[in-house]
Amino acid sequence: KMAAGAAAVAAAGLWSEVHRCGQNGDFARALKSVNKILQINKDDVTALQCKVVCLIQNGNFKEALGVINTHTKVLTSDVIAFEKAYCEYRLNRIESALKTIQSASQQTDKLKELYGQVLYRLERYDDCLAAYRDLIRNSQDEYEEERKTNLSAVVAAQSTWEKVVPEDLGLREATYELCYNSACALIGQGKLNEAMKKLQKAEELCRQSLSEDSDVTEEDIGAELAIIHGQMAYIMQLQGRTEDALQLYNQIIKLKPTDVGLLAVIANNIITINKDQNVFDSKKKVKLTNAEGVEHKLSKKQLQAIEFNKALLAMYTNQADQCRKLSANLQSQSPEHLLPVLIQAAQLCREKQHAKAIGLLQDFAEQHPANAAEIKLTMAQLKIAQGSVTKACMILRSIEELKHKPGMVSALVTMYSHEEDIDSAIEVFTQAIQWYQQHQASQIRGANPKSPVHLSLIREAANFKLKHGRKKEAISDLEELWKQNPKDVHTLAQLISAYSLVDPEKAKVLSKHLPSSDTMSLKVDVDALENSHGATYVRKKAGKLTGDNQQKEQGQGEVKKKKKKKKGKLPKNYDPKVTPDPERWLPMRERSYYRGRKKGKKKDQVGKGTQGSTTTGSSELDASRTASSPPTSPRPGSGTAVSVTSNVIPPRHQKPAGAPAAKKKQQQKKKKGAKGGW
């Protein structure tokens, strides 16, 4: 009895210590006291609950979950449901947390709050929205602002990832978090200018909010603003301002924010700007996307986009095996997605395996008919690259949902024309026109046979047939157009022009339907037109012409003025008695009497070598022989001439042509003032 009493007294003292430490926030010390209580009574439910709470407050979620799981008989789901679900949530075991919450017998407010967070992480945005609305409606405490922020985050996620038009929640954007979430929702709708204004407002509110706290430094403010600036840079990137975006992205990276999710997104966006350029920078940035915990910070679509870019980067850096491995993993995760198979096909094309790439795309199109159109467009592009234009046309014509579209018709007609297959081009026009005639009621602005698309195709077909000499077929199309709109003068004129080549009598009959010249007058003020700024001819203003002048004016149209021939200029030393040189039109080097340029005087060669010696033979210094000898310069075309297109780069200090002569002049000037010689 005495021992039991002493234990009770000790336990009471320990509980007091636990209570005091809990109020002071000293959970590490409180945990020590709780452990001492559990030594006295290991199955004390309250002590076990306190131990779990202390471990959670100290961030030891795994240990706390271990305590819960080892004492399941004492700590039942009704007692510890929230703590267990919270530990699972913080350990990123989201599915387990959801099961724990749903298995709880009583849904407390704390569990409902956690339930909303779990649904958001699972990307079940509709259920999450309903959960937060219920919380806001039925809660009255100091956390109302946080719940509204979470609600706006859900709406932003729906707009961004599910392309749902967000509803107006009527929230007053008094905090920078609400402004930021509103901007994200606007980005999802493509309203980039409005989103940028919201982000600027969010930045202003953030600075105001944090500057009120004296303990917050400028670095802390910069770190908090990093996510806002990151979104601003993303908007710049979408607007095509890639240089500004890149500069802002790099500024954020230099701040070294602790949010690994933010760094991963920024690194991925920089890689998309670099594309196939600056791959070394991209290889550095891709390391940021592999940081620990990134997969728990980003949405599934963000993670998927990062993996796609990793595969593309591997392709651009010629890492073929890595590219195939990454794209194969992506395809196994999302078998119906287009990008993995397109990346694989692109890699095969880089390896010059076009046939294998087309086969891969063909297999995917057969397995996934819903995505066949995009795949077949790629196959057609590969066929065109190989020069198989006709096969590309066959692939394009097999796309049922696109083959009648005006753009596709235009492309097919152009390609067939390039191959000079006019019959196939006309067949494309005919099939498209027939399709619109059959599907008019259901797809083209109601049951209107005079649809602009339908009529424009007929007109284009007629023009094409006229261009390629198919006049009778063109006449049939033009008659159909004129029948649809008898007031169309342009069509009637085309029809008359076509008949004039085939049946002139019919053309005369149809010409009676043309409006008279009086009804077609354009009512143009000729004087105003001639005096306008863009007129190339301005009529001279003059008085009334007299009889003689009038006859002159009338005669001017018949008599043409003779142009005066300019006399050719003769050279100054021209002598009419001397016969001109017949080779005067040839360049000097190509004339028969050209003997090359004269060399400089032998004076330049004197003084070279050792004292008292000469560099040339005595015969060369003989003045009598030099006078009668022919010049020694190489003739044009000889082997000693230097090519103008030589790739040899001359030394930087090489003397320019004519340098010796310049030097000679300088020496002569100096000698004038000299008193003695050598």
From TrEMBL:
Residues 540-596 form the Signal recognition particle SRP72 subunit RNA-binding domain. InterPro entries: Signal_recog_part_SRP72_RNA-bd, SRP72, SRP72_TPR-like, TPR-like_helical_dom_sf, TPR_rpt. Gene3D superfamilies: Tetratricopeptide repeat domain. One of its GO terms (cellular component) is signal recognition particle, endoplasmic reticulum targeting. Residues 572-593 have a biased composition (Basic and acidic residues). Residues 607-641 have a biased composition (Low complexity). Keywords: Acetylation, Coiled coil, Cytoplasm, Endoplasmic reticulum, Isopeptide bond, Phosphoprotein, Repeat, Ribonucleoprotein, Signal recognition particle, TPR repeat, Ubl conjugation. It is found in: Cytoplasm; Endoplasmic reticulum. TPR repeats lie at residues 226-259. SUPFAM superfamilies: TPR-like (SSF48452). One of its GO terms (molecular function) is ribosome binding. Residues 539-678 are annotated as: Disordered. Residues 94-149 form a coiled coil. Its main location: cytoplasm. Residues 560-570, 662-678 have a biased composition (Basic residues). Pfam families: SRP72, SRP_TPR_like, TPR_8. GO terms for biological process: SRP-dependent cotranslational protein targeting to membrane. Component of the signal recognition particle (SRP) complex, a ribonucleoprotein complex that mediates the cotranslational targeting of secretory and membrane proteins to the endoplasmic reticulum (ER). The SRP complex interacts with the signal sequence in nascent secretory and membrane proteins and directs them to the membrane of the ER. The SRP complex targets the ribosome-nascent chain complex to the SRP receptor (SR), which is anchored in the ER, where SR compaction and GTPase rearrangement drive cotranslational protein translocation into the ER. Belongs to the SRP72 family. This is Signal recognition particle subunit SRP72. It comes from Cinclus mexicanus (American dipper). The gene is Srp72.
